[in-house]
Amino acid sequence: MLSSCISKLGRMVLASATILATSMAPSQACTDLRLTNKDGTTVSGRTVEFGIEIDGYVALIPRGQTFTGQTPAGDGMKYTAKHAVVGMYAYTDVKIMDGLNDAGMMAGAFYLPQFSTYTPVTADNQAKGVSSAEFPNWILTQFGSVDEVRQAVEAGDVVITPTVLSGWGKEPPPFHYAVYDTTGAAIVIEAIDGKLVVHDNPLGVVTNSPTFDWQMTNLRNYITVQPNNVDSGKIGPVELKAFDLGNGMWSIPGDFSPPSRFVRAALFSANAIPSDNAEEGIPHIFHVLNNFDIPKGIGRGMDSSGTVSADYSQFTVAREGFNLRYYYRSYKDQSIRMIDMKQLDLDAKDIKTFPVDSDQPIADMSAELK
Prior knowledge:
Number of domains: 1
Oligomer: single chain
Mean pLDDT: 89
Number of helices: 6
Number of strands: 21
CATH class: Alpha Beta
Largest sheet: 8 strands, antiparallel
CATH topology: Penicillin V Acylase, Chain A
Helix content: 10-25%
Strand order of the largest sheet: 13-12-11-8-7-6-3-21
Strand content: 25-35%
Low-confidence stretches: 1-26
Distance between the termini: 76 Å
């Protein structure tokens, strides 16, 4: 019993040390959460943070497009899109890393530094291989439900390979993945010790390191937190009145580390008052995601050369699978943009793209008061 406790303590210390070490270097601090509406529909959304400015693009991938996975040994899995997809990709590889498909399924990649370890490529598995950045593209183009994704992953139909990618640095980018569908099902997929592990995600929340099971265990520290205001209390014979609203949420962590963001996202998504429907849920989830918006300079790191980088929320995304709508805004342009898949040719011959960011000025409304 004692050795078991010591072992568990050691793992907790190691995880905490890893988080601290990771926070001292440029990182990627994304937060994803889901809200359930009164009519049973759901919306999901995320922030996209990086310590360096990335080139982000919106894309439509029509049905019938062909892809070839990347592995360190060359070409990997060859597959054809069964589902059309709208979403975002980064740099020059036009493969969706966060998106929505024509079945209403949603998926995205999130950094998991120090914990993601991919499968070595062999002659036997190369034909199943994709890069870590391409994995969401494979999911979204091939499947229409969380159950289908789970079955394919657990059957070993795909291998995530340790592939170095242009724009992502000198090492394979370390990701784990969130998947949602219109039934309310949600899973997290992680590459641990070279094997893909599927976790149920009942709260619909994802951040970054440590692993998802650690984050769920850490929530036990916050079981006394609740949204209801406490009007008064006693210390001995003295009755004390509350200052104002919000003391029910006392003790929730306010920093931007992954465990703290996970706790806040879990509490906010679980306690947000439901919207009537998915359409009303979109502005609601953007308001919730505002709590995870990181301005430039609030979270920063320094590399060995002394170069300072600061994580900031370059994009914020919302996904709505019931009406097949994908929403986004950027750091430079806070206006919410929407793409309605029902208006698009989902069987077009070519992939269509455009940059996410824009330099659209703030709207001048002065004329309304003249």
